[in-house]
Design the sequence.
């Protein structure tokens, strides 16, 4: 059964609230709305980029009926802690499939990710955990926010490295789901994260180009 069907089967609907992440696509919030409930946004863990169970606990209220968690960039959710939280509060905890989660040749992506982990400097590389598919290889460009990350992205693109901003606007800041939510870790991640290429078809020379372009910048750039 899909997430929507499971919510409905549990009787979750009008008058209920369901905790969802704001970092990522709006799919989880959309499913909650389709069930007739209200999405409530909780902050993320700054390392996993998934819902932080402690942050979820902070937004649980009398109308909270469930939690819909989503893996991020190919990394699994913190399922053990979230399900424990659900048992303590009597909440339904569901893991919604990450949009576009299926990727080709995951073992090769992991090999490429390990290569970048060992050689990149000046950026914060993703934590290596069991089950990570590296659908996207997302680093942080630490600094004072968006200008640093964006200037860094422009500079490595000029050196022939394709990259993208994985989450341009957190869901709670979009017009359809505008909420008065205070999510500092979500917003900081949106300002600092950058997806570097880690496609299975990349050659060692391609990976070396990524490393050389990133390391040549020393991590931070002044705002353009």
Sequence:
């Amino acid at each position: 059964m899909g997430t929507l069907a499971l919510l409905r089967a549990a009787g979750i609907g009008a008058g209920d609230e369901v905790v969802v992440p704001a970092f990522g696509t709006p799919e989880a919030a959309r499913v909650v709305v389709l069930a007739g409930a209200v999405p409530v946004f909780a902050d993320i863990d700054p390392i996993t980029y998934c819902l932080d169970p402690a942050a979820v606990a902070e937004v649980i209220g009398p109308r909270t009926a469930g939690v819909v968690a989503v893996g991020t960039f190919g990394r699994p959710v913190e399922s053990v802690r979230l399900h424990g939280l659900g048992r303590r509060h009597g909440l339904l905890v569901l893991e919604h499939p990450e949009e576009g989660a299926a990727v080709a040749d995951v073992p090769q992506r992991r090999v490429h990710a390990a290569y970048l982990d060992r050689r990149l400097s000046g950026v914060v590389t993703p934590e290596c955990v069991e089950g990570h598919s590296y659908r996207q290889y997302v680093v942080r460009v630490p600094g004072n926010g968006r200008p640093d990350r964006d200037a860094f992205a422009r500079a490595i693109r000029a050196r022939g490295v394709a990259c993208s901003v994985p989450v341009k606007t957190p869901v709670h800041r979009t017009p359809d789901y505008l909420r008065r939510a205070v999510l500092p870790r979500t917003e900081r991640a949106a300002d600092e994260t950058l997806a570097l290429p880690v496609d299975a078809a990349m050659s060692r020379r391609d990976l070396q180009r990524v490393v050389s372009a990133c390391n040549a910048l020393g991590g931070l750039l002044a705002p353009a």
The first strand starts at residue 17 and ends at 21. The chain has two domains: 3-96, 106-215. The chain has a mean pLDDT of 91.
